[in-house]
């Protein structure tokens, strides 16, 4: 997967992310706990939520952030924090600013518009 990432740029997030409010934090924990329980029941270590350009609610559900790239996804591990990926550089600080996802990466695809 490394070849898909923009190797010239560090992930966004270390120190620049926001912190969710208490209410947002409770909502995040509720969503993540429910998903992780379902993952555990199915013996899954990782959940991949994909968002093509025309349907982004899966990524929004896990990040609480609007994205507008032609493709984005979030990896939610059974333990630890999620990581986000987007084809649009401007999505990265938007994702980390909400505080739900602290690490966001640029996803370089030869023709990302073909995924939309």
Give an overview in words:
With 116 residues, the chain is an alpha+beta fold. The protein has a single domain (16-110), classed as Creatinase/prolidase N-terminal domain (Creatine Amidinohydrolase, Chain A, domain 1, 3-Layer(aba) Sandwich). It has helices at residues 22-41, 57-63, 91-97; strands at 46-52, 71-77, 83-86, 103-106. A four-stranded mixed beta sheet has the order 1-2-3-4. Mean pLDDT is 83; it is low at 1-10.
Q: What layout of secondary structure does this protein have?
A:
Elements: H1 22-41, E1 46-52, H2 57-63, E2 71-77, E3 83-86, H3 91-97, E4 103-106
Parallel strand pairs: 3-4
Antiparallel strand pairs: 1-2, 2-3
Which keywords apply here?
alpha+beta, Creatine Amidinohydrolase, Chain A, domain 1, single chain, 116 residues, 3 helices, four-stranded mixed β-sheet
Q: Which band does the percent of strand residues land in? A: 15-25%
Order of helices and strands: HEHEEHE
- Low-confidence stretches are 1-10
CATH secondary-structure class? Alpha Beta
Biggest beta sheet summary = 4 strands, mixed
How would you summarize what this structure contains?
This protein is α+β, with helices and mostly antiparallel strands. The protein has 3 helices and 4 strands, in the order αβαββαβ.
């Amino acid at each position: 997967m490394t070849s898909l990432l923009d190797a010239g740029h560090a992930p966004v997030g270390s120190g620049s992310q926001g912190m969710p409010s208490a209410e947002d934090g409770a909502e995040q924990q509720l969503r993540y706990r429910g998903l992780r329980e379902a993952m555990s029941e199915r013996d899954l270590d990782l959940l991949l939520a994909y968002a093509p350009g025309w349907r982004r609610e899966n990524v929004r559900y896990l990040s609480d952030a609007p994205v507008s790239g032609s493709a984005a996804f979030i990896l939610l591990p059974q333990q630890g924090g999620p990581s986000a990926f987007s084809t649009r550089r401007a999505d990265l600080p938007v994702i980390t600013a909400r505080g739900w996802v602290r690490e966001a990466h640029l996803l370089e695809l030869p023709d990302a518009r073909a995924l939309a």
